[in-house]
Amino acid sequence: MRNYIIIFIGLLLCAFIIKDNYFTSPDNWPKPAYDFDRNPLTENKILLGRNLFYEPMLSKDYSVTCESCHSPFSAFTHIDHSLSHGIGDSIGSRNSPTLINLAWQKTFMWDGAINNLDMQALAPISHPDEMGSSINEVVDRLNLSQKYRSLFYKAFADSVATGEKTLKAISQFLLTLVSSESKYDSVMRKESVFTPKEARGYKIFKKNCSSCHTEPLFTNGKFTNNGLPIDTSLHDIGRVQITLDPSDSFKFKVPTLRNIEYSYPYMHDGRFKKLSQVIKHYTKGIQNSATLDPQLSKGLELSSAERVDLINFLLTLSDRKFVFNPEYQYPK
């Protein structure tokens, strides 16, 4: 009996180790918001989701994949244009957000229109300026594919694709996109040290930026009006379109600063191509309005040297291991 108990405990430990290999929550990070009990990660489901992420049949004309707007080499966003591009050379109204550390997020998209990662993929799939399809059309196509019938069988012990399985598989792949191996992280683990410029930049960051870009995720997950002048061609009024609460006018989700070196252009409309332009906005470009974040009412007072130091710190948030991880790239 004792031997059976030992074997049982050993199997449990192995199960936890395997699960940790699929998703690792770094030490001293907050508890993930995602409910893994409702969608337990498995190797085959992650593989299915990874294939779906790079699959053009998710779009109406087979021309667009998730990767089209979320390239792994740019921290899972795009860098060649300000606004997202979709089927038929259509142009969207916003810059695509990065797909980093999604397990810790409670809302998704710049305006928080989605509050469940398992439902997120529905938005781009059905948007007429993005993939222009529908989940029913996608499922019908997947069920005609021998490749996907095999992948679904391995993942779910059932070769028939459904909308729920498809969306949950995509979530599984997205949940593995954990970025926690930057120089900043190694300094926090006391494995390396900042240069003098980086150290000065970190102090500047903690004083001026950390209330919104909260460590270690470098976002507080909230929505704020950061004083951007209105783009009259887009006239995007932000979260108020979702909540219908006037106090949410011109508020957008605070993006993570992790891998910011790779994720330009910046802001919800991609108006800035350089970090120096972003910092210039916060020092000289704040536009006052009724919903402006009170912390920004006077702008940031930074000297030229302090701006350089701040950028030096922000570059320590680059995680090359994450950006160039072959396990996140097109499956071979």
Secondary-structure blueprint:
Blueprint: H1 2-22, H2 43-53, H3 66-69, H4 117-120, H5 122-126, H6 135-143, H7 146-156, H8 163-175, H9 183-188, H10 196-208, E1 223-224, H11 240-243, E2 252-253, H12 275-284, H13 304-314, H14 320-323
Antiparallel strand pairs: 1-2
In short, what is this structure?
The chain is mostly helical and 332 residues long.
- Broad shape: globular
Fraction in helix? 25-40%
Number of strands: 2
CATH superfamily of the largest domain: Cytochrome c-like domain
Strand ordering within the main sheet: 1-2
* Helix vs. strand class: mainly alpha
Spell out the helices and strands N to C.
HHHHHHHHHHEHEHHH
Strand content: under 5%
Q: Tell me about the biggest sheet?
A: 2 strands, antiparallel
Could you please describe the fold and organization of this structure?
- It is a single chain.
- The protein has helices at residues 2-22, 43-53, 66-69, 117-120, 122-126, 135-143, 146-156, 163-175, 183-188, 196-208, 240-243, 275-284, 304-314, 320-323, and strands spanning 223-224, 252-253.
- It folds into two domains: 32-178, Orthogonal Bundle (Cytochrome Bc1 Complex, Chain D, domain 2), CATH 1.10.760; 183-320, Cytochrome c-like domain (Cytochrome Bc1 Complex, Chain D, domain 2, Orthogonal Bundle).
- Helix 2 runs antiparallel to helix 7 (146-156), helix 2 (43-53) packs across helix 8 (163-175) and helix 10 (196-208) packs across helix 13.
- The protein is mainly alpha-helical.
- Helices cover 38% and strands 1% of the residues.
- The N and C termini lie far apart (46 Å).
